[in-house]
Amino acid sequence: MKEFLLMKGNEAIAEAAIRAGADAYFGYPITPQSEIMEYLMTEKATERTGMVVLQAESELAAINMVYGAAGTGKKVLTSSSSPGISLMQEGISYIAGAELPCVIINVVRAGPGLGTIQPSQADYFQSVKGGGHGDYRLIVLAPSSVQEMADFVPLAFDLAFKYRNPALILSDGVIGQMMEKVELFKPIPRTEQFDQSWVITGKTPDRKANVITSLDLEPLPMEKHNHHLQAKYKKMEDEEVRFEEIMCDDADYIMVAYGSSARICSKALQLARAKGVKVGLLRPITLFPFPKVRIAELAQRVKGMLSVELSAGQMVEDIRLAVNGKIPVEHYGRFGGMVHSPSEVLEAFEKIFIKN
Amino acid sequence: MEVKEIIRQENMVYQRSSLLTSKPFSYCPGCGHGTSNRLVAEVIEELGIQNDTIGVAPVGCSVLIYDFIDIDFSQAPHGRAPAVATGIKRVLPEKVVFTYQGDGDLAAIGTSETIHACNRGENITIIFVNNGIYGMTGGQMAPTTLPGMKTSTSPYGREVATMGTPLKITEMIAHLDGVNFVSRQAVHTPAAVRKAKKAIRAAFECQINKKGLGFVEIVSNCNSGWKMTPVKANQWMEENMFPFYPLGDIKVDGKLVKTL
Question: Contacts of residue B83 in chain A, CB cutoff 8 Å?
Protein backbone atom coordinates (compact mmCIF):
# COMPACT_ATOMS: atom_id res chain seq x y z
CA MET A 1 0.00 0.00 0.00
CA LYS A 2 1.26 3.44 -0.87
CA GLU A 3 2.05 5.70 2.05
CA PHE A 4 1.13 9.35 1.59
CA LEU A 5 1.84 12.08 4.13
CA LEU A 6 1.45 15.85 4.24
CA MET A 7 4.90 17.09 5.16
CA LYS A 8 7.18 20.10 5.12
CA GLY A 9 10.17 19.77 2.80
CA ASN A 10 12.53 19.75 5.74
CA GLU A 11 10.55 17.01 7.47
CA ALA A 12 10.49 14.96 4.28
CA ILE A 13 14.30 15.14 4.08
CA ALA A 14 14.62 13.99 7.68
CA GLU A 15 12.17 11.11 7.28
CA ALA A 16 13.91 10.14 4.04
CA ALA A 17 17.28 10.10 5.83
CA ILE A 18 15.92 7.64 8.39
CA ARG A 19 14.34 5.48 5.67
CA ALA A 20 17.44 5.67 3.46
CA GLY A 21 19.38 3.88 6.20
CA ALA A 22 21.56 6.82 7.19
CA ASP A 23 23.97 5.89 9.96
CA ALA A 24 24.55 9.37 11.32
CA TYR A 25 23.44 12.98 11.18
CA PHE A 26 25.53 15.81 12.62
CA GLY A 27 24.15 19.34 12.51
CA TYR A 28 23.75 22.74 14.05
CA PRO A 29 20.53 24.79 14.19
CA ILE A 30 19.94 27.50 11.60
CA THR A 31 16.74 28.86 10.02
CA PRO A 32 15.15 27.83 7.64
CA GLN A 33 16.25 24.20 8.08
CA SER A 34 16.13 23.52 11.83
CA GLU A 35 13.14 21.17 11.39
CA ILE A 36 15.50 18.54 9.99
CA MET A 37 17.32 17.86 13.27
CA GLU A 38 14.15 18.56 15.28
CA TYR A 39 12.31 15.89 13.28
CA LEU A 40 15.14 13.36 13.70
CA MET A 41 15.03 13.89 17.46
CA THR A 42 11.22 14.02 17.77
CA GLU A 43 10.69 10.95 15.62
CA LYS A 44 13.38 9.06 17.57
CA ALA A 45 15.58 8.19 14.63
CA THR A 46 18.07 6.47 16.95
CA GLU A 47 15.41 4.16 18.37
CA ARG A 48 13.98 3.41 14.94
CA THR A 49 17.17 2.45 13.10
CA GLY A 50 20.19 2.96 15.35
CA MET A 51 21.08 6.14 13.48
CA VAL A 52 23.33 8.53 15.40
CA VAL A 53 21.90 12.06 15.70
CA LEU A 54 24.18 14.61 17.34
CA GLN A 55 23.85 18.37 17.73
CA ALA A 56 27.34 19.79 17.25
CA GLU A 57 28.72 22.99 18.78
CA SER A 58 29.03 24.65 15.37
CA GLU A 59 28.78 23.95 11.66
CA LEU A 60 32.57 23.61 11.68
CA ALA A 61 32.34 20.78 14.18
CA ALA A 62 29.32 19.26 12.41
CA ILE A 63 31.04 18.94 9.02
CA ASN A 64 34.17 17.55 10.66
CA MET A 65 32.09 14.96 12.52
CA VAL A 66 30.68 14.09 9.08
CA TYR A 67 34.23 13.84 7.75
CA GLY A 68 35.31 11.54 10.59
CA ALA A 69 32.26 9.28 10.36
CA ALA A 70 32.30 9.21 6.54
CA GLY A 71 35.86 7.85 6.69
CA THR A 72 34.50 4.72 8.35
CA GLY A 73 32.30 4.02 5.31
CA LYS A 74 29.03 4.86 7.05
CA LYS A 75 26.16 6.76 5.45
CA VAL A 76 26.46 10.21 6.98
CA LEU A 77 24.67 13.49 6.36
CA THR A 78 24.42 17.03 7.62
CA SER A 79 22.18 19.97 6.85
CA SER A 80 22.45 23.70 7.19
CA SER A 81 21.56 26.96 5.51
CA SER A 82 23.75 29.41 3.63
CA PRO A 83 25.90 31.04 6.38
CA GLY A 84 26.34 27.64 7.99
CA ILE A 85 27.32 26.08 4.68
CA SER A 86 29.89 28.85 4.23
CA LEU A 87 31.40 27.82 7.57
CA MET A 88 31.50 24.21 6.43
CA GLN A 89 33.39 24.90 3.22
CA GLU A 90 36.83 24.03 4.57
CA GLY A 91 35.57 20.67 5.76
CA ILE A 92 33.74 20.01 2.49
CA SER A 93 36.98 20.67 0.60
CA TYR A 94 38.76 18.12 2.83
CA ILE A 95 35.97 15.58 2.27
CA ALA A 96 36.16 16.07 -1.51
CA GLY A 97 39.97 15.92 -1.43
CA ALA A 98 39.98 12.74 0.66
CA GLU A 99 37.21 11.30 -1.57
CA LEU A 100 34.65 10.49 1.08
CA PRO A 101 30.94 9.96 0.42
CA CYS A 102 28.46 12.06 2.37
CA VAL A 103 25.28 14.04 1.85
CA ILE A 104 25.03 17.75 2.60
CA ILE A 105 21.73 19.62 2.52
CA ASN A 106 21.62 23.39 2.01
CA VAL A 107 18.23 25.00 2.54
CA VAL A 108 19.30 28.31 1.07
CA ARG A 109 18.47 31.69 2.60
CA ALA A 110 19.34 35.10 1.25
CA GLY A 111 22.66 36.81 1.79
CA PRO A 112 25.26 38.11 1.69
CA GLY A 113 26.32 38.04 5.33
CA LEU A 114 23.60 37.31 7.83
CA GLY A 115 21.15 38.35 5.09
CA THR A 116 17.66 37.16 5.86
CA ILE A 117 15.95 33.89 6.64
CA GLN A 118 13.80 34.21 3.51
CA PRO A 119 14.35 31.93 0.47
CA SER A 120 17.07 32.46 -2.09
CA GLN A 121 19.06 30.67 -4.78
CA ALA A 122 22.14 32.83 -4.38
CA ASP A 123 24.32 29.88 -3.25
CA TYR A 124 24.51 28.49 -6.80
CA PHE A 125 28.11 29.56 -7.37
CA GLN A 126 29.19 28.22 -3.98
CA SER A 127 27.48 24.89 -4.71
CA VAL A 128 28.49 24.13 -8.28
CA LYS A 129 31.91 25.74 -8.56
CA GLY A 130 33.42 24.00 -5.55
CA GLY A 131 32.78 26.42 -2.70
CA GLY A 132 35.88 25.89 -0.64
CA HIS A 133 39.54 25.96 -1.65
CA GLY A 134 41.04 23.84 -4.41
CA ASP A 135 39.78 22.25 -7.64
CA TYR A 136 36.85 20.08 -6.65
CA ARG A 137 33.19 19.57 -7.43
CA LEU A 138 30.15 18.39 -5.55
CA ILE A 139 27.32 16.42 -7.09
CA VAL A 140 24.49 18.95 -6.78
CA LEU A 141 20.83 17.91 -6.83
CA ALA A 142 18.12 20.58 -6.91
CA PRO A 143 14.69 19.39 -5.70
CA SER A 144 11.66 21.41 -6.75
CA SER A 145 9.03 19.67 -4.62
CA VAL A 146 8.62 18.12 -1.21
CA GLN A 147 8.44 14.77 -3.01
CA GLU A 148 11.87 15.34 -4.48
CA MET A 149 13.22 16.44 -1.09
CA ALA A 150 12.44 12.90 0.06
CA ASP A 151 13.43 11.05 -3.13
CA PHE A 152 16.75 12.82 -3.58
CA VAL A 153 18.11 11.67 -0.21
CA PRO A 154 18.65 8.01 -1.23
CA LEU A 155 19.68 9.19 -4.71
CA ALA A 156 22.27 11.52 -3.19
CA PHE A 157 23.64 8.70 -1.04
CA ASP A 158 23.83 6.38 -4.07
CA LEU A 159 25.74 8.97 -6.11
CA ALA A 160 27.98 9.90 -3.18
CA PHE A 161 29.04 6.28 -2.71
CA LYS A 162 29.25 5.55 -6.43
CA TYR A 163 31.78 8.36 -6.89
CA ARG A 164 33.16 8.62 -3.32
CA ASN A 165 32.29 12.29 -3.40
CA PRO A 166 30.10 14.61 -1.34
CA ALA A 167 26.62 15.10 -2.79
CA LEU A 168 24.79 18.33 -2.07
CA ILE A 169 21.02 18.71 -2.06
CA LEU A 170 20.53 22.38 -2.92
CA SER A 171 17.11 23.36 -1.68
CA ASP A 172 15.81 26.71 -0.52
CA GLY A 173 13.52 28.24 2.09
CA VAL A 174 10.44 27.78 -0.13
CA ILE A 175 10.85 24.04 -0.66
CA GLY A 176 12.10 23.50 2.90
CA GLN A 177 9.16 25.21 4.55
CA MET A 178 6.22 24.43 2.26
CA MET A 179 3.93 21.46 2.87
CA GLU A 180 2.90 19.04 0.14
CA LYS A 181 1.70 15.51 -0.29
CA VAL A 182 4.61 13.05 -0.26
CA GLU A 183 4.69 9.42 -1.14
CA LEU A 184 7.36 7.91 1.04
CA PHE A 185 9.60 5.10 -0.06
CA LYS A 186 9.94 1.92 1.94
CA PRO A 187 12.78 1.89 4.50
CA ILE A 188 16.12 0.70 3.15
CA PRO A 189 18.07 -1.41 5.66
CA ARG A 190 21.32 0.00 7.04
CA THR A 191 23.77 -2.13 5.11
CA GLU A 192 27.23 -1.74 3.68
CA GLN A 193 27.12 -3.12 0.16
CA PHE A 194 29.87 -1.09 -1.47
CA ASP A 195 33.64 -1.35 -1.70
CA GLN A 196 34.99 -1.19 1.86
CA SER A 197 38.68 -1.39 1.02
CA TRP A 198 39.39 2.24 1.90
CA VAL A 199 37.54 2.62 5.20
CA ILE A 200 39.12 3.24 8.59
CA THR A 201 37.64 0.69 10.95
CA GLY A 202 40.85 -0.53 12.55
CA LYS A 203 43.73 -2.10 10.63
CA THR A 204 43.48 -5.87 10.64
CA PRO A 205 46.56 -8.01 9.89
CA ASP A 206 45.18 -8.94 6.45
CA ARG A 207 45.46 -5.44 5.05
CA LYS A 208 47.59 -2.32 4.98
CA ALA A 209 46.71 0.62 7.18
CA ASN A 210 44.19 2.99 5.63
CA VAL A 211 44.75 6.72 6.00
CA ILE A 212 42.00 9.18 5.15
CA THR A 213 43.83 12.27 3.98
CA SER A 214 43.94 15.00 1.36
CA LEU A 215 47.58 15.81 2.14
CA ASP A 216 50.61 15.19 0.00
CA LEU A 217 53.54 17.52 0.52
CA GLU A 218 54.98 16.52 -2.85
CA PRO A 219 53.46 18.48 -5.78
CA LEU A 220 53.82 15.77 -8.42
CA PRO A 221 51.67 13.15 -6.64
CA MET A 222 49.27 15.96 -5.72
CA GLU A 223 48.93 16.90 -9.38
CA LYS A 224 48.28 13.23 -10.16
CA HIS A 225 45.60 13.10 -7.48
CA ASN A 226 44.01 16.22 -8.98
CA HIS A 227 43.99 14.60 -12.43
CA HIS A 228 42.23 11.62 -10.87
CA LEU A 229 39.63 13.91 -9.33
CA GLN A 230 39.09 15.75 -12.61
CA ALA A 231 38.58 12.45 -14.45
CA LYS A 232 35.95 11.56 -11.86
CA TYR A 233 34.12 14.88 -12.35
CA LYS A 234 34.27 14.33 -16.13
CA LYS A 235 32.66 10.92 -15.68
CA MET A 236 29.88 12.57 -13.67
CA GLU A 237 29.38 15.03 -16.53
CA ASP A 238 29.16 12.15 -18.99
CA GLU A 239 26.86 9.93 -16.97
CA GLU A 240 24.91 11.74 -14.29
CA VAL A 241 23.23 14.74 -15.94
CA ARG A 242 19.56 14.93 -14.96
CA PHE A 243 17.00 17.46 -16.13
CA GLU A 244 13.32 17.84 -16.93
CA GLU A 245 11.85 19.48 -20.04
CA ILE A 246 8.39 20.96 -20.23
CA MET A 247 7.09 21.89 -23.69
CA CYS A 248 10.53 22.44 -25.14
CA ASP A 249 9.82 20.53 -28.38
CA ASP A 250 7.98 23.33 -30.18
CA ALA A 251 9.34 26.21 -28.12
CA ASP A 252 10.66 29.44 -29.57
CA TYR A 253 12.06 30.49 -26.21
CA ILE A 254 13.33 28.51 -23.24
CA MET A 255 13.21 29.43 -19.61
CA VAL A 256 15.87 27.69 -17.54
CA ALA A 257 15.10 27.42 -13.84
CA TYR A 258 15.67 24.98 -10.98
CA GLY A 259 14.12 24.33 -7.58
CA SER A 260 11.38 26.67 -6.40
CA SER A 261 11.97 29.04 -9.31
CA ALA A 262 11.18 26.19 -11.71
CA ARG A 263 7.82 25.73 -9.99
CA ILE A 264 7.07 29.41 -10.52
CA CYS A 265 8.24 29.24 -14.13
CA SER A 266 5.98 26.28 -14.90
CA LYS A 267 3.06 28.56 -14.11
CA ALA A 268 4.60 31.45 -16.08
CA LEU A 269 4.93 29.05 -19.02
CA GLN A 270 1.19 28.31 -18.89
CA LEU A 271 0.44 32.04 -18.86
CA ALA A 272 2.70 32.55 -21.89
CA ARG A 273 1.22 29.63 -23.81
CA ALA A 274 -2.30 31.00 -23.11
CA LYS A 275 -1.16 34.15 -24.89
CA GLY A 276 0.16 32.09 -27.80
CA VAL A 277 3.84 32.56 -26.99
CA LYS A 278 5.72 29.29 -27.37
CA VAL A 279 7.82 29.07 -24.25
CA GLY A 280 9.43 25.90 -22.91
CA LEU A 281 11.00 25.17 -19.53
CA LEU A 282 14.23 23.33 -18.96
CA ARG A 283 14.68 22.39 -15.31
CA PRO A 284 18.16 21.20 -14.38
CA ILE A 285 17.87 18.54 -11.67
CA THR A 286 21.62 18.17 -11.39
CA LEU A 287 23.31 21.57 -11.23
CA PHE A 288 26.64 19.82 -11.29
CA PRO A 289 26.89 18.07 -13.67
CA PHE A 290 25.06 20.78 -15.59
CA PRO A 291 22.87 19.89 -18.63
CA LYS A 292 25.09 21.95 -20.90
CA VAL A 293 24.95 19.54 -23.84
CA ARG A 294 21.14 19.68 -23.97
CA ILE A 295 21.17 23.47 -23.58
CA ALA A 296 23.62 23.74 -26.49
CA GLU A 297 21.31 21.53 -28.62
CA LEU A 298 18.29 23.68 -27.81
CA ALA A 299 20.28 26.82 -28.63
CA GLN A 300 20.49 25.58 -32.23
CA ARG A 301 16.77 26.10 -32.76
CA VAL A 302 15.30 28.54 -30.22
CA LYS A 303 15.47 32.33 -30.32
CA GLY A 304 16.50 33.05 -26.77
CA MET A 305 16.84 31.71 -23.23
CA LEU A 306 15.90 33.27 -19.93
CA SER A 307 17.54 32.08 -16.73
CA VAL A 308 15.08 32.64 -13.91
CA GLU A 309 16.75 32.47 -10.54
CA LEU A 310 16.19 33.80 -7.01
CA SER A 311 19.55 35.52 -7.29
CA ALA A 312 21.22 38.38 -9.13
CA GLY A 313 22.13 35.93 -11.89
CA GLN A 314 24.47 33.01 -11.29
CA MET A 315 23.30 29.97 -13.29
CA VAL A 316 22.92 32.32 -16.27
CA GLU A 317 26.71 32.24 -16.61
CA ASP A 318 26.72 28.47 -17.10
CA ILE A 319 23.89 28.71 -19.63
CA ARG A 320 25.87 31.34 -21.56
CA LEU A 321 28.92 29.08 -21.53
CA ALA A 322 26.80 26.24 -22.95
CA VAL A 323 25.11 28.46 -25.56
CA ASN A 324 28.43 30.01 -26.51
CA GLY A 325 27.02 33.19 -27.99
CA LYS A 326 24.61 31.55 -30.46
CA ILE A 327 21.46 33.18 -29.08
CA PRO A 328 20.71 35.84 -26.44
CA VAL A 329 20.70 34.51 -22.87
CA GLU A 330 19.30 36.83 -20.23
CA HIS A 331 18.56 36.68 -16.54
CA TYR A 332 15.55 37.61 -14.47
CA GLY A 333 14.91 37.09 -10.79
CA ARG A 334 13.91 38.69 -7.51
CA PHE A 335 16.47 38.18 -4.77
CA GLY A 336 17.57 39.19 -1.29
CA GLY A 337 14.75 37.05 0.11
CA MET A 338 12.02 38.20 -2.33
CA VAL A 339 10.35 35.58 -4.53
CA HIS A 340 9.14 36.42 -8.05
CA SER A 341 5.58 35.65 -9.10
CA PRO A 342 4.64 33.88 -12.37
CA SER A 343 3.25 37.15 -13.77
CA GLU A 344 6.48 38.99 -12.91
CA VAL A 345 8.44 36.29 -14.75
CA LEU A 346 6.17 36.54 -17.79
CA GLU A 347 6.37 40.33 -17.79
CA ALA A 348 10.17 40.20 -17.63
CA PHE A 349 10.26 37.59 -20.40
CA GLU A 350 8.04 39.68 -22.67
CA LYS A 351 10.02 42.84 -21.96
CA ILE A 352 13.31 41.13 -22.83
CA PHE A 353 12.35 38.97 -25.80
CA ILE A 354 9.01 40.06 -27.28
CA LYS A 355 8.59 43.83 -26.97
CA ASN A 356 12.10 44.61 -28.19
CA MET B 1 79.66 -14.95 22.63
CA GLU B 2 77.98 -14.12 19.35
CA VAL B 3 75.41 -11.37 18.79
CA LYS B 4 72.72 -13.95 18.02
CA GLU B 5 73.13 -15.46 21.49
CA ILE B 6 72.82 -12.08 23.17
CA ILE B 7 69.61 -11.09 21.38
CA ARG B 8 67.69 -14.18 22.39
CA GLN B 9 64.10 -13.53 23.49
CA GLU B 10 64.76 -14.27 27.18
CA ASN B 11 67.42 -11.57 27.28
CA MET B 12 65.10 -9.01 25.74
CA VAL B 13 64.58 -5.97 27.95
CA TYR B 14 63.38 -3.59 25.27
CA GLN B 15 62.46 -3.73 21.61
CA ARG B 16 61.11 -1.43 18.99
CA SER B 17 57.34 -1.51 18.80
CA SER B 18 56.17 -3.58 15.85
CA LEU B 19 53.58 -0.88 15.19
CA LEU B 20 56.24 1.61 14.18
CA THR B 21 56.67 1.72 10.42
CA SER B 22 60.10 1.40 8.81
CA LYS B 23 60.13 5.11 7.98
CA PRO B 24 62.70 7.07 9.97
CA PHE B 25 61.19 9.85 12.08
CA SER B 26 61.34 13.06 10.07
CA TYR B 27 61.12 15.30 13.12
CA CYS B 28 63.98 17.68 13.88
CA PRO B 29 66.79 16.11 15.94
CA GLY B 30 65.98 16.63 19.62
CA CYS B 31 62.23 17.07 19.10
CA GLY B 32 59.90 15.35 21.57
CA HIS B 33 57.45 14.20 18.88
CA GLY B 34 59.47 11.09 17.99
CA THR B 35 59.44 9.85 21.58
CA SER B 36 55.77 10.78 21.97
CA ASN B 37 54.85 8.89 18.77
CA ARG B 38 56.80 5.89 20.00
CA LEU B 39 55.06 5.87 23.38
CA VAL B 40 51.63 5.96 21.72
CA ALA B 41 52.65 3.03 19.50
CA GLU B 42 54.01 1.06 22.46
CA VAL B 43 50.88 1.61 24.57
CA ILE B 44 48.56 0.57 21.70
CA GLU B 45 50.64 -2.58 21.13
CA GLU B 46 50.88 -3.45 24.82
CA LEU B 47 47.13 -3.04 25.26
CA GLY B 48 46.65 -5.27 22.19
CA ILE B 49 44.23 -2.81 20.58
CA GLN B 50 46.05 -2.18 17.29
CA ASN B 51 43.32 -3.89 15.22
CA ASP B 52 40.67 -1.68 16.76
CA THR B 53 42.39 1.67 17.09
CA ILE B 54 41.87 4.65 14.81
CA GLY B 55 44.06 7.74 15.15
CA VAL B 56 43.28 11.31 14.16
CA ALA B 57 46.21 13.43 13.02
CA PRO B 58 45.54 17.13 12.45
CA VAL B 59 47.61 19.94 10.94
CA GLY B 60 51.18 20.80 11.93
CA CYS B 61 54.07 18.50 12.86
CA SER B 62 51.49 16.27 14.59
CA VAL B 63 50.11 15.18 11.23
CA LEU B 64 53.27 13.18 10.52
CA ILE B 65 52.30 10.55 13.11
CA TYR B 66 50.31 8.67 10.46
CA ASP B 67 53.55 7.97 8.61
CA PHE B 68 55.07 6.32 11.68
CA ILE B 69 52.38 4.24 13.39
CA ASP B 70 50.99 1.40 11.31
CA ILE B 71 47.30 1.70 12.15
CA ASP B 72 44.28 3.33 10.48
CA PHE B 73 44.29 7.12 10.63
CA SER B 74 42.19 10.04 9.56
CA GLN B 75 43.90 13.32 8.88
CA ALA B 76 41.89 16.27 10.24
CA PRO B 77 41.57 19.95 9.31
CA HIS B 78 43.46 22.32 11.59
CA GLY B 79 41.91 22.23 15.06
CA ARG B 80 39.07 19.86 14.20
CA ALA B 81 40.56 16.57 15.40
CA PRO B 82 38.18 16.22 18.38
CA ALA B 83 35.18 16.71 16.04
CA VAL B 84 36.59 14.18 13.54
CA ALA B 85 37.25 11.76 16.42
CA THR B 86 33.69 12.33 17.68
CA GLY B 87 32.32 11.40 14.26
CA ILE B 88 34.37 8.20 14.14
CA LYS B 89 33.66 7.18 17.72
CA ARG B 90 29.91 7.83 17.49
CA VAL B 91 29.50 5.47 14.53
CA LEU B 92 32.07 2.93 15.78
CA PRO B 93 31.61 3.05 19.57
CA GLU B 94 33.49 -0.21 20.16
CA LYS B 95 36.67 1.05 18.47
CA VAL B 96 39.43 2.99 20.23
CA VAL B 97 39.81 6.51 18.87
CA PHE B 98 42.51 9.01 19.76
CA THR B 99 43.72 12.40 18.60
CA TYR B 100 47.33 13.57 18.59
CA GLN B 101 47.44 17.36 18.53
CA GLY B 102 49.83 20.24 18.97
CA ASP B 103 49.21 23.39 20.99
CA GLY B 104 48.31 25.67 18.08
CA ASP B 105 45.87 23.04 16.87
CA LEU B 106 44.28 22.14 20.20
CA ALA B 107 44.49 25.39 22.15
CA ALA B 108 44.06 28.08 19.46
CA ILE B 109 42.15 27.22 16.31
CA GLY B 110 40.57 24.12 17.84
CA THR B 111 39.67 25.47 21.29
CA SER B 112 35.96 25.13 20.64
CA GLU B 113 36.16 21.53 19.38
CA THR B 114 38.46 20.61 22.28
CA ILE B 115 36.22 22.06 24.97
CA HIS B 116 32.98 20.70 23.52
CA ALA B 117 34.31 17.19 22.89
CA CYS B 118 35.59 17.19 26.48
CA ASN B 119 32.32 18.61 27.77
CA ARG B 120 30.24 15.97 25.97
CA GLY B 121 32.47 13.38 27.59
CA GLU B 122 33.31 11.82 24.24
CA ASN B 123 34.83 8.46 25.06
CA ILE B 124 38.07 9.22 23.23
CA THR B 125 41.72 9.83 24.13
CA ILE B 126 43.50 13.12 23.43
CA ILE B 127 47.29 13.35 23.34
CA PHE B 128 48.32 17.00 23.41
CA VAL B 129 51.94 17.91 22.63
CA ASN B 130 52.63 21.41 23.93
CA ASN B 131 55.87 23.01 22.79
CA GLY B 132 54.71 26.60 23.15
CA ILE B 133 55.13 27.46 19.49
CA TYR B 134 53.94 26.74 15.95
CA GLY B 135 56.65 24.38 14.74
CA MET B 136 55.83 23.42 11.17
CA THR B 137 54.96 26.93 10.00
CA GLY B 138 58.27 28.26 11.25
CA GLY B 139 58.12 29.23 14.89
CA GLN B 140 55.22 31.64 15.33
CA MET B 141 53.64 32.56 18.67
CA ALA B 142 51.17 30.00 20.02
CA PRO B 143 48.50 30.44 22.71
CA THR B 144 50.88 28.53 24.98
CA THR B 145 53.96 30.70 24.28
CA LEU B 146 55.40 31.92 27.59
CA PRO B 147 55.41 35.63 28.54
CA GLY B 148 58.51 37.29 27.13
CA MET B 149 59.26 34.32 24.88
CA LYS B 150 60.60 35.27 21.45
CA THR B 151 58.96 33.79 18.36
CA SER B 152 58.82 34.91 14.74
CA THR B 153 55.54 36.75 15.38
CA SER B 154 56.60 38.02 18.81
CA PRO B 155 60.20 38.87 17.86
CA TYR B 156 60.67 41.11 20.91
CA GLY B 157 59.05 38.62 23.25
CA ARG B 158 55.40 37.86 24.06
CA GLU B 159 54.02 41.04 25.53
CA VAL B 160 51.23 40.07 27.90
CA ALA B 161 49.49 43.46 27.69
CA THR B 162 48.80 43.06 23.97
CA MET B 163 49.19 39.33 23.31
CA GLY B 164 47.63 37.86 26.44
CA THR B 165 48.91 35.26 28.85
CA PRO B 166 49.53 31.62 27.90
CA LEU B 167 46.40 29.48 27.87
CA LYS B 168 46.39 26.65 30.41
CA ILE B 169 43.81 24.66 28.48
CA THR B 170 44.64 21.43 30.32
CA GLU B 171 43.62 22.99 33.63
CA MET B 172 40.47 24.35 31.93
CA ILE B 173 39.26 21.03 30.59
CA ALA B 174 40.11 19.22 33.83
CA HIS B 175 37.10 20.98 35.39
CA LEU B 176 34.66 19.47 32.90
CA ASP B 177 32.57 16.55 34.15
CA GLY B 178 32.92 14.61 30.91
CA VAL B 179 36.69 14.36 31.36
CA ASN B 180 37.79 11.38 33.44
CA PHE B 181 41.58 11.52 33.35
CA VAL B 182 43.99 14.43 32.90
CA SER B 183 47.75 14.34 33.24
CA ARG B 184 50.65 16.57 32.19
CA GLN B 185 53.96 14.89 31.45
CA ALA B 186 57.25 15.33 29.55
CA VAL B 187 59.51 13.06 27.49
CA HIS B 188 62.96 14.66 27.84
CA THR B 189 64.51 12.18 30.32
CA PRO B 190 64.17 8.39 30.79
CA ALA B 191 62.29 8.93 34.06
CA ALA B 192 59.91 11.40 32.41
CA VAL B 193 59.36 8.99 29.51
CA ARG B 194 58.31 6.22 31.91
CA LYS B 195 55.80 8.51 33.63
CA ALA B 196 54.48 9.82 30.31
CA LYS B 197 53.94 6.27 29.06
CA LYS B 198 52.04 5.38 32.23
CA ALA B 199 49.79 8.41 31.73
CA ILE B 200 49.18 7.63 28.04
CA ARG B 201 48.29 4.08 29.00
CA ALA B 202 45.87 5.34 31.66
CA ALA B 203 44.22 7.66 29.13
CA PHE B 204 43.67 4.76 26.71
CA GLU B 205 42.44 2.46 29.50
CA CYS B 206 39.98 5.14 30.52
CA GLN B 207 38.45 4.89 27.02
CA ILE B 208 38.56 1.10 26.89
CA ASN B 209 36.72 0.99 30.22
CA LYS B 210 34.18 3.54 28.89
CA LYS B 211 34.86 6.01 31.71
CA GLY B 212 34.98 9.13 29.56
CA LEU B 213 37.61 11.26 27.98
CA GLY B 214 41.29 10.77 28.83
CA PHE B 215 43.66 13.68 28.19
CA VAL B 216 47.48 13.73 28.37
CA GLU B 217 49.49 16.88 27.79
CA ILE B 218 53.13 16.33 26.93
CA VAL B 219 55.18 19.46 27.58
CA SER B 220 57.79 19.28 24.86
CA ASN B 221 60.46 21.30 23.13
CA CYS B 222 60.81 22.77 19.68
CA ASN B 223 64.53 23.39 19.47
CA SER B 224 64.21 24.54 15.84
CA GLY B 225 61.48 27.03 16.62
CA TRP B 226 63.07 28.04 19.90
CA LYS B 227 66.40 28.39 18.06
CA MET B 228 68.35 26.37 20.62
CA THR B 229 70.41 23.21 20.57
CA PRO B 230 68.48 20.13 21.71
CA VAL B 231 70.31 20.08 25.07
CA LYS B 232 69.80 23.78 25.65
CA ALA B 233 66.14 23.47 24.65
CA ASN B 234 65.56 20.78 27.26
CA GLN B 235 67.29 22.88 29.92
CA TRP B 236 65.23 25.90 28.94
CA MET B 237 62.07 23.77 29.06
CA GLU B 238 62.85 22.59 32.59
CA GLU B 239 63.65 26.10 33.79
CA ASN B 240 60.83 27.97 32.06
CA MET B 241 58.07 25.68 30.78
CA PHE B 242 57.73 23.36 33.79
CA PRO B 243 57.18 26.15 36.37
CA PHE B 244 54.32 27.44 34.19
CA TYR B 245 53.08 23.99 33.14
CA PRO B 246 53.79 21.82 36.20
CA LEU B 247 54.02 18.08 35.54
CA GLY B 248 51.92 15.39 37.18
CA ASP B 249 48.41 13.93 37.26
CA ILE B 250 45.66 16.54 37.45
CA LYS B 251 42.51 14.41 37.39
CA VAL B 252 42.28 10.69 38.08
CA ASP B 253 39.11 8.61 37.85
CA GLY B 254 36.98 11.70 37.51
CA LYS B 255 38.43 13.44 40.58
CA LEU B 256 40.80 16.39 40.66
CA VAL B 257 43.98 15.33 42.45
CA LYS B 258 45.70 18.69 42.19
CA THR B 259 44.60 22.11 43.39
CA LEU B 260 44.35 24.27 40.32
Answer: 56, 60-62, 64-65, 68
